[in-house]
């Protein structure tokens, strides 16, 4: 990216060598500062991007434990209550073959013995629940 040959003065004639050397140093250090800035910005970006999915999953996991585990169980297989109500195993094809939209709709509107959550959960929470149902109980790709 940066040309190191620009960092050393190629001008060896003694008297004006000084000024061009200084110029080279100035140009070099600004390049180094610029490089450092770019690196810092890039790092900040990468670490924030890396932290996101984990945060989403934590939110999804929390929402699942709070709202869904009563029937579906923290492990997704279903509690005795859930089984009595005919709640399917979250790992099953019945669930995992649903589209994200279908799962989101089901959470919002409920179905048969499953209550609707559109008044208690917001869109973000429902999205993170859909992601959690996929990541925690879906087949690993
Ligand atoms: C009161 C018990 C109960 C709670 C709480 C509950 N469910 Fe259900 N869930 C059910 C039952 C019963 C079914 C089966 C519905 C049917 O198809 O008759 C079901 C089905 C599902 C299905 C599969 C779709 C289907 O039609 O079979 C998904 C996905 C699901 N629930 C997700 C969730 C999520 C996510 C939550 C938390 C926001 C949640 N459920 C909370 C009882 C519950």
**Distance between the terminal alpha carbons, to the nearest Å?**
38 Å
Which compounds are bound in this model?
heme C
The oligomeric state is single chain
Please tally the helical runs, counting DSSP H or I stretches of 4 or more residues.
6
Report on this model:
This protein is an all-alpha fold. It has one domain: Cytochrome Bc1 Complex, Chain D, domain 2, CATH 1.10.760.10. It has helices at 14-67, 69-72, 80-84, 93-96, 100-109, 123-137. The structure holds heme C.
Question: Could you give the topology of this structure?
Answer:
Layout: H1 14-67, H2 69-72, H3 80-84, H4 93-96, H5 100-109, H6 123-137
Bound molecules: heme C.
The site of heme C (HEC) has 23 residues, from helix 2, helix 4, helix 5 and helix 6.
For this entry, give a set of tags:
0% strand; 141 residues; rod-shaped; mainly alpha; Cytochrome Bc1 Complex, Chain D, domain 2; binds heme C
Q: Would you summarize the structure shown here?
A:
The chain is mostly helical. Helices cover 65% and strands 0% of the residues. Heme C binds at residues 67-68, 70-72, 82, 85-88, 94-95, 103, 106-107, 111-115, 117, 129, 133.
